[in-house]
Every structure is written in C-alpha cells, then in structure tokens.
Specification:
alpha/beta, single chain, 188 residues, 6-stranded parallel sheet, 39% helix
C-alpha cells in the first residue's frame, strides 16, 4: 500500500517548510492530503513565491479547512500519520485540548485517537510557560513536538538546503525513509 500522509499548514511563519514537506513526499510517491488554513493562505502569499493555484496543481488532494465531514476527519480512513508544519500556537492549543474546530485540528485529533503519529513543527520563539505547558499536554496525548530547528552538522550552504533538510527530518520521523535527511555519521 502506498503511504498516505496528511499535511496541515497553519498561519505561523515558515509555510515554506510545510510546502517543502509536500514536495518531498510527492517525490517519494506518497499520497498527500493537504489542508491549508485560512491564515496560512496569507502567510504563503507574503513569505513565498507559491500561489494557491500552483499548490493545487500538485498531484495531491487539497482539503477545505472548514470541511469537518472530509474523509480524513474519520479514523476509518487510514493514514500513516500527520505533519503540521508550521504549527501555530493556536493550532498547538487546539491539538493539546482536543478542540476540533477545523479540519487540521480534527485530523490531528483523529490520528492521535487512532494511535497514529502526529508531528507538530511548532514555529514560535521565545516560548513562555503557557506554550511549554501546551507542548507537554500535546506530547502526553501522543503528539511529537518537533520545532523546525536546523541541524548545522548537515552543513547547509543555503536556506533552501536547510529547509529541505528540516522537511526530510520531519518525514523521517513519520517513518518514511528519504534521501533529503542526512544522518549524523559520528566523529570517529
């Protein structure tokens, strides 16, 4: 069976990370189900060269963020898990509190209740005690907290390489091997 992954892109800065995850998953032959929040549409427009029509032209299924009756809103629709990149604090709060007000948070809640991996690429800094509490709460519910922190051992020569490595690392954590994430070789 072809791997099937849900990607949520929220309005936090760093939408390009979620877009790159989508691009790399498609290159790996993964069936991608994408949800772009309304705030993310604005972030994509202001931070990237991507347009919604360009994203729609990719070989993926684009879901309406308000459609809570979508097939990915049900645990009976099997997926290998979900990556929310970037994950806003608002979305983190909703996931941590099982508040399914949109399709991104409903799909995350479904994945968690089914024991599937949900990766939250929290894009906020600095963090206050409330943010840390929410991350702990989400982790206790089963979410993987994976802020998009660059791995400088990969010696990125550009921001593009850094973003690709970050995206590859998120995909690897979902259990999908890929050539975009270079593992540490040790210092022997």
């Amino acid at each position: 069976m072809i791997p099937r992954v849900i990607i949520g892109i929220t309005g936090a800065s760093g939408a390009i990370i979620g877009i790159r995850v989508v691009e790399l998953l498609i290159q790996q032959g993964v069936e991608v189900h994408l949800i772009i929040s309304h705030s993310a549409e604005k972030t994509i427009q202001s931070e990237t060269v991507w347009t919604k029509s360009a994203i729609k032209s990719l070989p993926l299924t684009l879901h309406d963020p308000d459609n809570l009756s979508s097939r990915i809103a049900s645990g009976s629709y099997y997926t290998n898990g979900m990556i929310i990149a970037p994950c806003s604090i608002k979305t983190l709060s909703a996931v941590a509190n099982s508040y399914s007000s949109n399709l991104i948070t409903r799909a995350a809640d479904v994945c968690l209740k089914e024991g599937r991996t949900v990766i939250l690429a929290i894009r906020e800094s600095p963090l206050h005690a409330g943010h840390i509490h929410l991350m702990k709460q989400a982790a206790r519910a089963g979410a993987v907290i994976a802020p998009p922190v660059p791995a400088f051992y990969a010696m990125p020569r550009s921001i593009d390489e850094m973003i690709t490595h970050l995206a590859g690392r998120l995909i690897m954590r979902l259990g999908i091997p890929n050539p975009f994430y270079s593992e540490w070789k040790g210092s022997e």
